[in-house]
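User: Predict the structure for this protein chain, please.
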Amino acid sequence: MSKPRIVFVLSGYGKVLRGAEQFVAALTTRLAGRYDIAVLGGGPASPEAPYSIPLRFPDRSNRLAVAANKTPGIGHFLRLFQLDPLNWEWFFCALAAKKWLLHNPCDLLVTEGGRWGGLLGRWAHRRFGVPVVDVAHGAPSRWEDAAARCRPQAYVSLTRVSADEMARRVPGLAARVIPIGIDLDRFTPDGPCADLSALRRPVTLAVGALEPLKRMDTLVRAAALRPTGSLVILGRGPQHDELAALGQSLLGPDRFLLTAAPAEEMPRWYRAADVFASASASEAFALTFLEALACGLPIVTLDEAYRREQLRTHAVLLPPPASPEAFARGIGTALAESAASRSARLAFARSRYDATLMADAYAALFDSLLAAR
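Assistant: Here is the predicted structure, written as structure tokens:
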């Protein structure tokens, strides 16, 4: 008997390696024995993107999309109809996926991509009768509202807070909660560490895109307010040169490092650090928090409902927006935590955020939808 065919649609898959792409790679790897899996995205298959089937479509960096959205009047009109560069990518990915699905039927479709992913799912359900699962990686937002209003057979949120909010916004929504899991055999306190011998201890680690929403400059200023210690930032993005100059000016080469690391080397960096910090105002569920927890690091971040649910009592939570002074004090508090707190963080990560638990939860959901088809 053939396995049920499950198709995922994720525009950046095979092309970039953000949180959503890592989630799909981890999930599909663990579900491959149960289902016939294909992932439609922007790049080819690789060890970081298994089961990928590349589609051709313009992405968010398309010059026409970027230029049009910067043009007064035209840009406002496009954003009004959710055709900003990100939604532009999702729109054309959905069109390419629709064309592919016409010739390659599936038994269940998993979408992401705001309104356009939601409309793709609604079309597939009406055309082929397949159940649709929409996975929401972000907090409730305009595009998540649009996806939910397309009425997928299951709408998966990463936290109870966001699931309840979406159910309030879209009455009757079939909202589920399945937290993301990580590979706890890779992310562990034991193993090789990155070489940070040139930096002063203790080391604060920050990981993320170098863009204004991540507020990396707040962490640089916070590190400068502390009497000792260093800051390591791992990431790429448009603020690279600005942050590099700020770090060298306020901290100097023996207290500051700005670099990037491939995904396979991330456990080394977590193990080498003493505390993890995030000043980002845009994370509804941060994969980096789980990776830091699993490696035993104390965490300092903003106090929001999503993060309270994700981290419980295993982080120092600061009232937003949190100034550099507040982060400097929070880092000091986190560094003073006992070894017992470290053991509790490790136990919490294993009990809640194991990727195997995540895969089992998705398999149970998929099987129930397939059986009801």
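The mean pLDDT is 91.
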